[in-house]
Amino acid sequence: MSTATSKRELDHPAREEIRLETVLHALSDPVRMRVVRELAAAEGELSCSDFDLPVTKSTTTHHFRVLRESGVIRQVYRGTAKMNGLRRTDLEELFPGLFDRILEAAGLQGARLGG
Amino acid sequence: MSTATSKRELDHPAREEIRLETVLHALSDPVRMRVVRELAAAEGELSCSDFDLPVTKSTTTHHFRVLRESGVIRQVYRGTAKMNGLRRTDLEELFPGLFDRILEAAGLQGARLGG
After folding, report:
1. A10 with A68: CB under 8 angstroms?
2. A104 in B contact zone (CB under 8 Å)
3. Does B21 touch chain A (CB under 8 A)?
4. pLDDT digit string, tens, across residues B73-104
């Protein structure tokens, strides 16, 4: 079951609701992949305003929602900031080794293409 | 460069043209994932008619084209049959370990959900 007890708490899939196809779709966009790589590099939470993305604010909001609804990130309000963190434990439990390989693949491609 | 020397030879991205995001998108559809898993299990080529997919013939053709244009499969005509094979060597060279982890994740999810 999804959980949302108040307006200030955002909808997330429970671990067992996370689907591989949805995760792969979430990661199939270059902007979303960039967000995920920055979160992985930060090794902690980042606020939405910590990202300098080449898209409009509403597109940014859309991308974060896709990542949240797929189960890739968790978004929580802390004061007025919406903080984002990777759901690494959930993903690792469901799909062992997958997330690390995807990050590694993204890093190799970035090095190869100068991205 | 893509290669297509005749109508009987289909367009494929060269190895260095394959992009992670496009591969993940190709694998983000349940029907395409099923095709890929069957090809992996077959450990060789299968013709399009070897697959019994729950979609129309034109949708099937679309899914195979997405897989081919992303660089996940190679399609070649042998006589009148269009044969399909995974581009495992190319994918492994570009993204070490990734494809095996995705197949493993799909297998785990299938076992978990009875799919």
Report:
1. yes
2. yes
3. yes
4. 999 998 888 999 999 999 999 999 999 999 99
Please indicate if any CB of chain B lies within 8 Å of the CB of A59: no
**Which of A49, A111, A57, A109 lies closest to A84, judged by CA?**
A49
Nearest to B24 among A27, A94, A96 (CB): A27
The residue type found at A23 is V
- pTM, to two decimals: 0.91
Min Cα separation A68/chain B (Å): 16
> What does chain B come to in residues?
115
Decide if A70 contacts A25 (C-beta within 8 A).
yes
Residue B86 forms beta bridges with which residues? B73
The ipTM estimated for the assembled molecules is 0.90
Give me the domains of chain A, ranges plus CATH numbers.
15-105 (1.10.10.10)
Strand residues in chain A grouped as ranges (E): 46-47, 73-78, 81-86
